Amino acid sequence: MQLMDRFRATAVGRSLFRSPDRVTERDRAAGHWANFLLHIYPVKVHRREIEFRYSWYLGVASAVLFGSLVASGIYLMFFYVPSPASAYGNIQAIQTEVAFGQFVRNVHRWSANLMVIAVAAHMARVFYRGAYKPPREFNWVIGVVLLVLTLLLSFTGYLLPWDQLAYWAVTVGTSMADFVPFIGGTTREMLLGGDQVGSATLLRFYVLHVAVLPAALVAVLAIHLWRWRKDSMLDDGEG
Question: In whole angstroms, what is the distance from residue 166 CA to residue 153 CA?
Fold first, then answer.
């Protein structure tokens, strides 16, 4: 520790460590604010908000499942080409020829299904506790956006196996989008990339599934967590 203290006293050490030693509560708070990753969180939160019975850790479960989806999805991307000529064959090769391919695909599929359930259950739990009420109504809206992104991730991933079930499920789903007032037709054309499900549809769903929607979900999730931690100090309500 003496060596570390001497290093912190040097010009290089002072440039690296901006916060003082965390001896007093004030020092610990200053260290918290000075940290790049921790400064967005409040110094203190209510103890009840980190207990199991407060949220049943459904939010944590949703985040863990999303991490599982990212890890397994990256592995599957090495063996998948979003082309009608090869997509179905790639899926069969993943299940029969790729090392741990069947296992990883099952992990990806079950994580996707469980994430939808966990996010929906988390929303129901938050609604039951009345955490959508002021001053937390904005974070409730963010939570609804996260639920929509989760459903879109599940929907876009459904087409990637390129089998009959996926083809007709997406055909029905995009046809339903056509009934949305004002923007339905435009939305359907943007998703399909044409008049019917084809190669352009597969490519667009693939890009949405592996890049656009995950990036959007991470960004919105960061805001959601930040607002949750900030809002937790605004009142003593159930939240």
Answer: 14
141-153: pLDDT as tens digits: 999 999 999 999 9
Angstrom CA distances, 61 to 51, 55, 132, 142, 209, stand at 14, 11, 20, 18, 21
Return the residue matching tokens 């985040």.
63
The 10s digit of each residue's pLDDT in 202-233 is: 999 999 999 999 999 999 999 998 888 777 65
Burial (CB count within 10 angstroms: exposed 0-12, middle 13-18, buried 19+), residue 147:
middle
Assess contact for 202 and 160: CB atoms under 8 A.
Answer: yes
- Which residue segments constitute the domains of the chain, with CATH numbers given? 2-34 (no CATH), 51-231 (1.20.810.10)
